[in-house]
Design goal:
The protein is mostly helical. The protein folds into two domains: 1-108, no CATH class; 134-418, no CATH class. The protein contains ten helices and eleven strands. The protein has helices at 90-93, 132-145, 147-173, 191-223, 230-268, 271-291, 295-301, 308-315, 320-351, 387-418, and strands spanning 10-14, 17-24, 29-35, 78-80, 83-84, 177-179, 185-187, 357-359, 365-367, 370-371, 377-379. The protein has a three-stranded antiparallel β-sheet with strand order 1-2-3, with no helix packed on it. It has a three-stranded antiparallel β-sheet with strand order 7-6-11, with no helix packed on it. It has a three-stranded antiparallel β-sheet with strand order 8-9-10, with no helix packed on it. The protein starts with 9 loop residues before the first strand and ends in a 9-residue tail after the last helix.
Length: 427
């Protein structure tokens, strides 16, 4: 991960491996590493005198750091015996400012109960939320940078999956005939077709869910300036899918329980008490919505030992109002975009040879020109749009949904990154 700040080039604890040091070139970490103390080598600055337990490879001025380590600058990584290039003042040579190297650079994953903040109370990623303009700019700029993987995850994958489901469903029902003359008789029904459709639907749901989780990973890592390949994000999404299903079910059950309490109070206690309960649930719900604002992002990027509830809760500590305001703002933006997309979709859908609903001169409803109420024999296939129109409708729906989801996920992951939310170093 890149980190803001400029400092003297030198050797510092590896941000991803506590057993070694990594060279900082003044603006970013390089690929040059060397063993740390207790891991087969001595740490920079170690005393070469007695009691050290191991010779100091930096004892001689200009001496090499250790076998296998190199100085990208072309010279010795230490200007004096045991001294980094930054001089005796460790703070001057620390690319993260005065004080000790960042806690995140220790290579240790964030664990439950541990503070998500490094030394001097600094967040793991940045110091806090940027202004709204910068946040929105980062949201859209990141989407532009990662437009290809995001489009694959949110458009191509769902488009293929749901087109297949709808075509299978159409195939399963198009041969059904309903005869209402006398006793209602249904023919052409095949259970096998519906079972296949149901199975494929389940698989598509899992694949689309994996793609959405992969999108969150793509966008978070892009906000962190450490972009990942499409394949890497797909594997992360696949690995986090069971976790998403489990915690998602818990969240759904909690919401249903709250609704059940509201209905129960309204029915058995009275409308007044029900309204008060509803108001209380609404207030609590808004508060929880903010505290769990980063639930989806945390599902993907938080360490395995940290629940998404806990990670989101910590990321919003001291920022409830700021997160609430930004959440409302992105909601307004998405609503406006959704309204525009619906208008365009309605115009396009009206000219497609799809499923048209209109009325005859007597006011009867016609589906594709067929009066269902007056039809003694109804062929279900005649009510369905053609295969081409079906796919066209799926394209319209998928693209409209992808636009909203992409903006939401980029805004959410960017804000979680600014808030210093818990992150798995293995991401």
């Amino acid at each position: 991960m890149t980190t803001s700040g400029s400092a003297t080039p030198g050797w510092y604890p590896d941000p991803h491996d506590s057993t070694q040091y990594r060279y900082w070139d003044g603006s970013a970490w390089t690929e040059s590493t060397m063993p740390a103390a207790g891991a087969g080598g001595s740490s920079p600055g170690a005393d070469s005198g007695s009691g050290s337990g191991a010779p100091n490879p930096f004892a001689a001025p200009g001496g090499p750091p250790s076998a296998g380590a190199s100085d990208p600058a072309g010279g010795s990584p230490f200007a004096a015996p045991g001294q980094p290039l930054g001089g005796a003042d460790q703070g001057a040579g620390n690319p993260f400012g005065a004080g000790s190297p960042p806690e995140y650079g220790s290579g240790q994953p964030w664990s439950p109960g541990a503070s998500p903040y490094g030394s001097a109370g600094q967040p793991l990623h940045g110091g806090g939320l940027s202004d709204i303009g910068s946040w929105l700019s980062g949201t859209f700029n990141t989407l532009v940078k990662r437009i290809v993987p995001v489009s694959v995850f949110l458009i191509v994958v769902p488009l293929i999956g749901w087109s297949l489901v709808l075509l299978l469903f159409r195939s399963a029902v198009e041969s059904i005939v309903i005869d209402t003359r006398g006793d209602v008789e249904v023919t052409g029904f095949g259970a096998g077709g519906f079972l296949v459709t149901a199975l494929v639907t389940l698989i598509v749901l899992l694949v689309v869910g994996t793609a959405r989780l992969g999108t969150s990973h793509q966008l978070y890592m892009a906000h962190d300036d450490t972009p990942r390949s499409l394949g890497a994000s797909w594997l992360i999404g696949l690995r986090r899918l069971p976790r998403a299903i489990g915690w998602g079910l818990i969240l759904v059950i909690a919401v249903l329980a709250a609704v059940f309490v509201f209905v129960l109070v309204g029915v058995y206690v009275g409308v007044g008490a029900g309204l008060l309960t509803g108001l209380a649930l609404f207030v609590v719900g808004v508060w929880l919505w903010v505290k769990l604002f980063f639930f989806e992002t945390a599902l993907v990027v938080a360490p395995p030992g940290v629940s998404p509830f806990q990670a989101s809760w910590q990321a919003t500590d001291g920022r409830w109002g700021a997160v609430f305001g930004r959440g409302l703002l992105i909601g307004v933006i998405l609503s406006a975009i959704s309204f525009g997309v619906q208008i365009v979709s309605g115009i396009v859908g009206a000219v497609l040879p799809a499923w048209h609903v209109n009325f005859d001169s007597n006011g009867n409803v016609l589906f594709n020109g067929i009066n269902v109420e007056d039809s003694d024999v109804l062929e279900v296939g005649s009510l369905l749009p053609g295969a081409g129109a079906t796919i066209s409708l799926v394209v319209l729906y998928t693209v409209s949904q992808a636009v909203s989801r992409a903006i939401w996920l980029s805004a959410n992951t960017g804000l979680y990154h600014q808030a210093g939310g818990a992150v798995d170093p293995q991401n």
